[in-house]
């Protein structure tokens, strides 16, 4: 009996779930008279596919101007990046590995660790 009751409740819930959206699609009128439906007449266009666009030489001129503009932007970016790269290098490439920036970072990190060890030893000594 319980199985039949559960199945009946599921069927009832599904029926209510399907029926709810159908009733919600009707807008309330709140006592206003229904508005008549008016269909608009299609507007006929009198303009044809004529000579209203650009001429071929104008289109070519616009495309060429776009290509020149993009090329000019590319040249400006490349020359500026080369100038900045030359300023950062400060001359030629580093040949001595001992003078490399990476080596400097390693040395400073080792010094900082040595200071930290000495400070830790001093704190232990002062306990």
Description:
There is one protein chain. This protein has three helices and no strands. It has a domain of 31 residues. It is mainly α.
Tally of contiguous helical segments = 3
- Percentage of residues assigned to helices: 55-70%
Give the overall silhouette.
flat
**Roughly what is the average pLDDT, rounded to an integer?**
78
Number of strands: 0
Low-confidence stretches: none
How far apart, in Å, are the first and last alpha carbons?
81 Å
Order of helices and strands: HHH
Q: Describe the biggest sheet?
A: none
| SS content category | mainly alpha
Strand content: under 5%
Radius of gyration from the alpha-carbon trace, in angstroms? 41 Å
Offer a concise description of the structure.
By secondary structure, the protein is mainly α.
Key words describing this protein structure:
0% strand; flat; mainly alpha; single chain; 65% helix
Reconstruct the topology from this structure:
Elements: H1 2-24, H2 56-89, H3 101-125
